[in-house]
Design goal:
0% strand; mainly alpha; binds zinc ion
């Protein structure tokens, strides 16, 4: 039997306790291994005394909420996991943990990047999705949330690797195509113009790469992992195979690299992309009719994920709806949303991060052996 999750059942306190416990323990680990677990770009920006004070509050809060959950709830799992995380964090030094390790530039995992993203996105999107849900009955911890959180965890932890995979191929293979005169002219344009141009050129490439991922059978075997999510929310968009991420981002970066945009609009673009990618998957009921034909919205991208026949191979753009309109793949019926999400026609992929990492390679090999494309 499943226990209730309503307010007063010890569920909210248990979830918050576990979430704060993960954040607290993660922060303590970042203090212990700053050179391995934090992003060099962010290290200089942290106000360490404030972070220690905040960490103290987080750990105390996680502990008290864990106790509350244990008292209120028959199943002690949530509360106990929150308390255990706090105890491990305390054993490792808690908020008084010394800042260890010499700081050097080298390979690192973005644990701090994961924590910052988790805090920011869950603080914004969980309340928004509770207040304005398109499917109000869909819980925060819906089916396969662990799988999608694993994707979120791995992709932020491997931020150094994915950044390298995005930037390097363009630099290695396309430096011949760039021209200093053109780059200087592009970088001299007004911020807003560069930002709009970035959205357009990146999404134009992304559109065709994305369409190829749907059309070419072996590419689809990698991209269908993204489409295997049968619930849409802010976390669902994280489900992307590493090959999909590397190819799509690597190719979309080529025109950006060749044209040589200035740093400020480029940073603004990168921030915008990650927020919009989360936003368009969110379980939000607004139709944003003012953005119709212009910017990608949840309803627009939800149709791309539809299991319904009318949602097959539509809405490939991730930034600009107008690209689909231009290339004849636009589908956004007013007032209607897909009936179901996920893979159509009985296609299935296994649950879990690691099985999904391996599955496309297996599927491609099997198709080859069977003489299929
Ligand atoms: Zn797709
Ligand atoms: Zn998507």
């Amino acid at each position: 039997m499943t226990e209730p999750t309503r307010f007063g059942s010890g569920w909210t306190s248990g979830v918050l306790s576990t979430l704060l416990g993960v954040i607290g323990l993660g922060a303590v680990l970042c203090f212990h291994f700053p050179d391995l677990l934090t992003m060099p770009e962010l290290r200089g920006l942290y106000p360490v005394p404030y972070i220690r004070a905040l960490l103290h509050l987080v750990l105390v809060g996680a502990f008290l909420l864990g106790v509350l959950s244990v008292v209120l709830r028959r199943s002690k799992r949530l509360g106990a996991s929150g308390i255990s995380l706090v105890l491990v964090a305390a054993l490792l030094g808690g908020s008084r943990v010394p800042l260890d390790g010499e700081l050097r530039d080298g390979p690192f995992l973005g644990l701090d990047w994961f924590l910052l993203n988790l805090i920011a996105y869950s603080a914004v999107f969980i309340p928004l999705e509770r207040l304005f849900a398109r499917l109000p009955d869909q819980p925060i911890f819906r089916r396969a949330w662990r799988t999608d959180l694993s994707y979120f965890f791995v992709s932020t932890l491997l931020v150094q690797v994915t950044t390298l995979l995005t930037l390097k191929p363009a630099m290695v293979f396309f430096s011949w195509a760039s021209h200093p005169g053109v780059q200087a002219w592009v970088a001299a344009q007004p911020f807003v113009l560069q930002f709009a141009a970035l959205l357009f050129v990146a999404d134009l490439t992304q559109y065709w790469v994305h369409r190829a991922f749907h059309r070419v059978p072996w590419l689809w075997r990698f991209h269908r992992i993204h489409h295997s999510a049968d619930a849409m929310d802010w976390l669902a968009g994280s489900r992307l195979h590493l090959v999909d991420v590397a190819v799509t981002r690597g190719l979309s970066y080529v025109p950006i690299y060749v044209l040589g945009f200035a740093e400020a609009p480029l940073f603004a673009y990168v921030a915008f992309v990650s927020i919009q990618a989360t936003f368009i998957h969110a379980n939000l009921r607004f139709e944003f009719t003012k953005l119709r034909g212009i910017l990608a919205t949840p309803q627009f991208h939800h149709w791309h994920h539809a299991a319904d026949a009318e949602g097959v191979d539509v809405n490939f753009a991730v930034h600009l709806q107008l690209l689909d309109w231009l290339f004849g793949t636009f589908h956004l019926p007013k007032g209607r949303w897909p009936k179901a999400y996920g893979l159509a026609s009985g296609e299935r992929v296994p649950p879990g991060y690691l099985p999904q990492l391996v599955e496309p390679f297996r599927a491609v090999r099997e198709a080859r052996a069977a003489g299929e494309p």
